[in-house]
Design brief:
Blueprint (H helix, E strand, L loop, with lengths): L3 E2 L5 H5 L1 H4 L5 E7 L4 H4 L9 E9 L2 E10 L1 E3 L2 E3 L6 H6 L1 E2 L2 E2 H12 L3 E8 L5 H16 L18
Antiparallel strand pairs: 1-2, 2-9, 3-4, 3-9, 5-6, 7-8
Length: 160
């Protein structure tokens, strides 16, 4: 079964349209308790810098669980911090636990059957800055951090 989704009519795309609409290389897929997160990420191109969002449906509303990024821009060039870039970051670790295991526990705890994973290649824009803008917008609109983001940290010179 194909687990990839289109981003049309997505609440996430609607909410972050002012930030994410300009990126053409992007995707979304469904992660369930039966899936392997690493396998689901196999179609994401290697070595991309970008941002990603984990969300789920709670009480008939899509809720953002986590906003993250992979890589940064240095001297105008993308720098990949983690093996495989954005893809590797999505299936990597959260709170020192492999995300495959971490988010299966989250599904259990929240009583949901699936999590949506959105990803965006930020091309030549710094993904750390885009992530910062997304988290800040979320805080302004909701008065709190996404469930698994616990800080908003602006790195030196990111406003330049």
């Amino acid at each position: 079964m194909d687990k990839t989704l289109t981003l049309e009519n997505s609440i996430i795309m609607e909410f972050f349209a002012d930030i994410l609409d300009k990126y053409s290389e992007k995707g979304c897929f469904i992660f369930t308790y039966k899936d392997n997160l690493r396998s689901l990420c196999s179609y994401i191109p290697e070595n991309l810098c970008g941002v990603y969002v984990f969300s789920t449906i709670i009480e008939n509303e899509e809720k953002i669980l986590y906003i993250g990024c992979s890589g940064h821009i240095e001297n105008g060039n993308p720098v990949y911090r983690k093996k495989h870039g954005l893809k590797g970051r999505i299936y990597g670790k959260q709170e020192k636990t492999p995300r495959n295991k971490f988010y299966k526990q989250v599904m259990n705890d929240l009583g949901v059957s699936a999590i949506k994973v959105y990803w965006f290649n930020t091309e030549n824009e710094d993904p750390e800055y885009i992530e910062y803008r997304m988290i800040l917008k979320y805080i302004v609109e909701n008065g709190e951090f996404p469930m698994f983001n616990n800080k908003l940290e602006r790195k030196i010179n990111k406003a330049i």
